[in-house]
Design brief:
Mean pLDDT: 84
Strand content: under 5%
Structural class: mainly alpha
CATH class of the largest domain: Mainly Alpha
Radius of gyration: 23 Å
Number of strands: 0
Number of helices: 13
Length: about 280
């Protein structure tokens, strides 16, 4: 192997190592810190020196973290289910049916997703109060649809446009209705795209903080980002850093597990439609 090729390969693997360390080290350090207690939290250690799980126990014993996790699971999975259902049906209409104003409608959907949350916070608060959904997980589900549904519709529309029209024409010749075409012809081919968009919507709903903080009142209705954010004492010196680190690890683990389970479909979904045959 030529010296230049060796140098390029070494630099490539060095860059990969730097990126991996940069991405993983914060989570690794959070795990180490979550196993410490007392003054040990303020000592810098890059390898575990204690194996105490008191912080994990106290997170559930001293706080309403169990309720927070349950609320996040219910809200996130419900948001993903509704977003995928509405996104699929809207994507079929926008991607396959010709009608006036389709392009403008797509641009409007994309434009809605660009609004910052704080810009629509006051209007959404009034809507939630009017519907009687304040301090209710249904209010969170409704508000989260603002940023998950436009993204889902736009991405699935892009994917459904790449599917061969011959499949749809053959199904129509066999007398299939639009719902049958969507459910039995398109959906089996769109699983990678659905997994990718569904996972991204789940992560967005799982990590959302502003709406969850504004539209909930007590710990039994709050989600995990707000629960962690409110784990604070009267001053900075009283912050339960060990509990915060333990809670952060607990919250991050489900996302890691989901990515590992669906990593092949995620890659397929991200690369689908990139090359046309």
């Amino acid at each position: 192997m030529k010296p230049g090729a060796i140098i390029r390969r070494v630099l490539f693997y060095l860059m990969v190592a730097i990126i991996v360390v940069y991405a993983i080290f914060p989570f690794y350090y959070a795990i180490i810190s979550s196993l410490k207690s007392g003054t040990g939290l303020f000592k810098i250690n890059y390898f575990p020196v204690e194996w105490k799980f008191d912080n994990y126990v106290s997170v559930f014993r001293e706080y309403s973290f169990g309720y927070n996790i349950l609320n996040s699971v219910v809200v996130s999975f419900t948001v993903v289910a509704i977003s995928l259902f509405l996104g699929l049906t809207a994507a079929y209409a926008l991607g396959r049916i010709q009608f006036r104003g389709r392009g403008a409608l797509l641009l409007t959907i994309l434009g809605v997703s660009m609004f910052p949350q704080v810009a629509v916070l006051s209007g959404m608060f009034q809507l939630i109060r009017t519907l009687g959904l304040y301090n209710n997980v249904l209010g969170l589900i409704l508000s989260y649809m603002i940023f998950t549904l436009p993204f889902t519709v736009w991405v699935l529309t892009t994917f459904i446009r790449e599917l061969p029209k011959e499949l749809e024409e053959a199904a129509i010749m066999d007398g299939a209705s639009p719902w049958i075409i969507l459910r039995r012809v398109f959906m089996p081919l769109m699983w990678p795209a659905m997994v990718t968009t569904g996972l991204l919507a789940f992560i967005a709903a799982w990590n959302e903080f502003l709406f969850a903080l504004t539209f909930t009142l007590n710990n039994q209705k709050r989600t995990v980002p707000v629960g962690i954010g409110l784990m604070s004492g009267a001053s900075q010196h009283e912050l339960p850093w060990g509990n915060i680190m333990a809670a952060s690890v607990i919250v991050t683990l489900p996302l890691i597990v989901l990515v590992l389970i669906f990593q092949r479909r995620i890659v397929s979904g991200l690369t689908a439609g990139a090359v046309k045959g």
